[in-house]
Amino acid sequence: MTLARQVDALRSGERDLYARGEAMYSAMSRLYPICRSITGDGVRATLDVLAESLDVERRAVPSGTQAFDWTVPDEWNVRDAYIADPQGRRVVDFRRHNLHLVSYSVAVRATMTLDELRPHLHSLPDRPEWIPYRTTYYHRDWGFCLPDSQLRSMDEGPYDVVVDTTIEPGELTYGELVVPGESAEEVVVSAHVCHPSLANDNLAGIAVAAEVARTLASLESRRYTYRFLFAPGTIGSITWLSRNADVLDRIRHGLVLTGLGGPGSLVYKRSRRGDRDIDRAAAHVVARRGGEVRGYSPYGYDERQYNAVGFDLPFGRLSRTPHGEYPEYHTSADDLSFVEPAELAESYLAVLEVVDVLENDECYENLSPHGEPQLGKRGLYPTTGGRQATDAVMAMLWVLGYSDGSTSLLDIAVTADADFARLRSAASHLATAGLLTPAR
Description:
The chain is an alpha/beta fold.
């Protein structure tokens, strides 16, 4: 099956789109308990799960490796962490929720009063029942996160404090999947894999990327080669960029996926230049779906690494409500109840629609340019006249009216405020009827 046929079948209901959403939600549920960070066993475990159904190859980069201005850090792993009261009850317990431990905390064994503990405790007074997510990747420290209501209920102690972690030379790990196409030119899809039990940020992005990869790998053929990166945020993408100079010149389009399972409409963030082909394709799809298109900002996820002036790669970012704009962001409230299969399904289809534009946008020449051709004798026009033109007929008229050899289908879609997939289908029918041919 071609990508165009796959997209059309999902849009029409011929294929069950919601079932794809349920499958992605199920994958997220399996990954949710894993404690991930920028290095360590959690990232490897996550990549192992992805590799069960996709040919994801694990790459390992030793600690201490230089990556431009960054250095791959020592590897962090955690066995246990808790705060216990004088009766031995764990009042804060990493095993109950991995957000309780500040990521990259150093090892600690101590007995402390509450006053001594306070500098190492993090809570959200305005969200007293939620656990915040905090990290200390590049500064040796330790800490615990807990609901503010629990913090306010704690007495002076003393408390047994245990952080059973290791920070030692190891490796940074990322996953890479390449789906070959007819061309060596590449489309890169990137999703960060460094967050612990947070569903929307970014198990949703991982799940959508994996499902898109699965779909593209199943196609009869692809115009482009597709590279999927599952890497820790910032240090992961920078490390990948530092090790793949030979790939960068082949990248024609790039998309960072994050936060695609929560509420809110789709939001596309443009590349730094703002006018790349990926920007035009994604802006068209997102706008048609009632979403929002935003300009570039050097703050966010890994799109800011790919767009750095030294690379200037054509990367945009697709999300739903962006990071920091929903209260559940980076808290325990970003759990599996915060995401929905329907939102995952729409996000997945939107990504496929963007890819459909990238794969199938081209310029055509009208082979009957002297006036409107007679569509009826070719079975392309209703036999009974007098009615308003159907959407299918209007799509053919728009394509014929602008196919001058230099105006692409996406150009026509923007001009006509029309759906790209409908124009793509119209062009196919017109070409079959001998009225249209791809421009040379």
